[in-house]
Amino acid sequence: MASLVAPTPPRAASTALRVDRPPWGAIVAFLLPAFTVYVAFTAYPVLRTLWNSVRTVLPRNAEFVGLANYAALARDDLFWRAVQNTFVWACVSPLAEVTIGLLLALALYARIPGRRFFRIAWFTPVLMSYIVVGIIWVWIYNYDWGAANALLRAVGLGAYVQAWIGDPRVALPSLIFVTTWMWTGFNMVVLLAAMHSLPSEVLEAAELDNCGWAAKLWHVVIPLIRPTILNLVVLSFIGKMKIFDLVWITTKGGPLWSTETVSTYLYKRAFEWSTFDLGYPSTIAVVWFVIVLAGVLGLTWLFRTRERLEY
Amino acid sequence: MKRAIGLLGRGGLFAVVALYTAFAAGPFLWVATMSLRTTSEISIDHYALPAKWHWEKFGQAWFNSNYNVYFGNSLIVVVSAVALLTVIGSMAAHCFARYRFRGNRALYFIVFSAIIFPPQITIIALFQILVQYGLYNTLAGLALVYVAVQLPLTVYILETFFARIPGDLFDAARIDGYPEWQIFWKVSLPIALPAIATAVILNTILLWNEFLYAVVLITDESKRTLPLGIQRFMGDQLEDVGMIATGLMIAIVPVVLIYAFFSEKLIQGMTAGAVK
Q1: Which residue in chain A is spatially nearest to B27 when comparing CA positions?
Q2: Shortest distance, CA A169 to any CA of chain B (angstroms)
Q3: Which domains are seen in chain A, by residue range?
Q4: CB nearest to A23's CB, from B31, B180, B211
Q5: Whole-prediction pTM
Q6: Residue A26: its chain B contacts at CB < 8 A?
Q7: Cross-strand bridge partners of residue A55
Q8: What is the per-residue pLDDT across A50-69, written as a single tens digit (0 to 9) for each?
Q9: What element of type H or E holds A64?
Q10: What kind and span of H or E run contains B241?
Q11: B82: chain A residues, CB-CB within 8 Å
């Protein structure tokens, strides 16, 4: 890639020397360990999951059942409930995280004193495991002494006190709030880095044109850091499509499947329900894999077309 | 007048920033105070500062609640996985960045695309495979799976960096008669040390926190990693808030230490992919 950008003459000559004959022995030696691991623990498991998905797989034997698992999955209400929950999560989270992160980054961009300290503090939640974060938030959401209800009581909003993760109506939003708490700082730091890499001339020009603060933000800053924003949206989307740990430690998908995600449902079907069949859960995995892939490709495609339309 | 408004605006901005900081960091400070208080003290007032600092709780968690075992297991798995990852990841990245050969980009894409695979697509089969080869319920098996899981990200970070090293350096080494392995060892690696450090720190933290693969592939009490141990302790001693908080701090401290020393590197590593 680098040589494409700046094909200086001496560089081109030396490249030609290299193209001469690739040292196949060295190439194989360098790639072999990585590909051994890749084939054994990534490629082969993916293929085996595909193979599983058209079978009933019991500990001792496997029986071919054709597309029966897929047909059963299409009628599995719990699965579709989990899909719905996960999609809500994967669509709400990116919006919330990126919007709040952008506002915070702008606050820091205005050269507030102590920027470095704030940056480090805001990045902290993302470094903790979902297990640690989950337990802390189980406590924060505790009905009797949790910080959420304590705060509401303290400011006289006692009417809103509730069992945040015990009530099916608010459990999912409560957990989405946790991931937003966790990831907003990360988004903020990334956006800040993108803003600092903007050419200062552009911003100065906007300043000279007596552009208002909001106008400057909307017409100058956001269009310039758009690629970063879109990347963050995709990253957040992928992360939420996989979410498992947080749900597992807080609600295990309950109450009444209100926080069931595809990952927790798959785990339950494979390792918790005593059906001993690994075929059906594999079918869930394959269908979900296709959906995630389609989602990511769809998002990238959508963003790319919009980019083209604009110019 | 305009100055006053400006000052007011800045004050308001600062207030927002401070408020958000309290929101982001507050929960951790709360857990830190609880980790030094006994559960009976906590149940009187959940938000008081420790009246007496009960450091001995860390000893209790460490020796009586098996946290020494969990911590040791996490350390073994993470260190061996990261070591292996760094070696094979940098070898592959060096190869992708340095040699032009038919299929280079295709192979790179095959490895890199695994970055978006949801873990579910491999986890059931990994369970079967590890059982089959006697690696189920072993730290070695978990470490190998971790290597495979983090390989795409590692290769991606390192390849981007290796590709920016000027090619002339390698040609010079080649003209001097260095064999390919020595070029990797004596030219590529030393120059790429900053990128390798980033990858090492990032992988260490991500694997230290990993839960899904561990919960599927490990069931023995004596093989549990920290996240599993915490989950089990939470399940057994739900009411013992003080002790759970101590356990959480044991898991958090190494991460905080790494962060304290390498915050810039870590932020750089985690944001590498997102900023174009």
Answers
A1: A136
A2: 24
A3: 76-310 (1.10.3720.10)
A4: B180
A5: 0.89
A6: 95, 99, 180-181
A7: A64
A8: 999 999 888 888 889 989 99
A9: strand A62-64
A10: helix B241-271
A11: none
